[in-house]
Amino acid sequence: MIHVAAAVIDDGAGNIFLAKRPDDKHQGGLWEFPGGKVEPGESSEVALARELDEEIGIKVNQVESLIQIPYHYSDKSVFLDVFRVTGFSGEAWGREGQEVRWVPLNELDSYPFPAANKPILNAVLLPDKLLITKAYSSVSGCISGTESAINAFSLTWFMLRQKQLSEEGYAHWVRTMRAASQLNNRRLILSCSVELANSLKGEALHLTSQRLMAMSNREEFSGRFLGASCHSLEELNKAQLMQCDYVTLSPISPTKSHPSTPVLGWKAASNIIAQAALPVFLLGGMNQSDLMQAKSIGAQGIAGINAWCS
Ligand SMILES: Nc1nc2c([nH]c(=O)n2[C@@H]2O[C@H](COP(=O)(O)OP(=O)(O)OP(=O)(O)O)[C@@H](O)[C@H]2O)c(=O)[nH]1
Ligand SMILES: [Mg+2]
Questions:
Q1: Same-domain pairing of 79 and 141
Q2: Ligand 1 pocket, residue 32 CB under 6 Å
Q3: What are the tens digits of pLDDT across the range 239-274?
Q4: What is the number of alpha carbons within 13 Å of residue 34 lying toward its C-beta?
Q5: Residue at a domain's end among 107, 139, 165
């Protein structure tokens, strides 16, 4: 397994730095996140700093772990240790003559990347805090409750989960919420059947673990992001088989609403994440103060329901 350190660098204005791999190299002609092989005796962080100096002429002074991906190409196996560069000095350029570009987030999907990079793209495009709506008795209450949680926690994405609604009721709420100016520019993850999500032309769909286990092919959902609720390694493996773009893992800690439900705890969560080559949101008893710890065990971030909603 070739150990590789790679960097997601943003310019603070929503653009990500990409470089084009030379034609004569492995996965040549495709775009990449700059980085390279970790040398014997080097830590990933040290290798990353060295590679970014050599390849794009910047001095890295702060990084955050983003995601780790083992991937088997037909000709070699790589372990991509991907970091988000949160502080650097100098101006990035193609020091080895490679083509480089700052690419707006919403254009990243149109660049050809090596196959191993799909989870990196997902980790870059998804947020680190995900709101899951609690049950509301009216769509107007849901809109104002969601709006206040979004503002309170600076959220960009939310999942509309309303198990009490019929399919028609859910579809009506989705249309109403999409039209609500208060929720303008927020990304909506549907929580419903695959059929309903497709008929609503959903960009993102979250499956219950039951729906996940019943799914047989990723192509059943036509939208960009497919997520699923996982509670065990078995469910995580199924989510990876279905090429899910992310999962939630729960319950991590006890919650006020379910104080005596058995929980996974941080240790088991960390062991499950180590088997995951996709972004994992920790769910269940998560507060904003848990975000750093979640990231430190390799999670994408945290998700919350009741404690985050008013
Ligand atoms: N840097 C980088 N490598 C990637 C990405 N995705 C991906 O599959 N890889 C693979 O990981 C390996 C990284 O090697 P590299 O070619 O960057 O290594 P390097 O900078 O040390 O180059 P060198 O071998 O010419 O000294 C390659 O096999 C490459 O195909 C990515 O986004 N960035
Ligand atoms: Mg390289």
A1: no
A2: yes
A3: 999 999 999 999 999 988 888 889 999 999 999 999
A4: 29
A5: 107
What is the pLDDT confidence band of residue 309, given thresholds at 50, 70 and 90?
Answer: confident
Residue 47 shares a structural domain with residue 139: no
5 lines ligand 1 (CB under 6 A): no
Please indicate whether residue 9, judged by its CB atom, sits closer than 6 Å to ligand 1.
no
Spatial separation of the C-alpha atoms in residues 129 and 152, rounded to whole Å: 12
In this structure, are 73 and 202 located in the same domain? no
- Residue 111 Cβ inside 6 Å of ligand 1? The answer reads no
> Minimum-distance ligand to the CA of 124?
1
| Domain assignment of residue 46, given as a range | 2-107
Reported as a single tens digit per residue, the pLDDT across 104-144 is 999 999 999 999 999 999 999 999 999 999 999 999 999 99
Structural domain includes residue 121? no
Taking all residues of the chain, what is their mean pLDDT, rounded to a whole number?
A: 96
* For the chain, percent of residues with pLDDT exceeding 90: 96
Q: Phi/psi of residue 76, each to 5°?
A: -165, 160
> Which residues in 21-169 belong to E strands, given as ranges?
31-32, 35-37, 59-72, 77-89, 100-104, 129-132, 157-160
Closest ligand to the CA of 114: 1
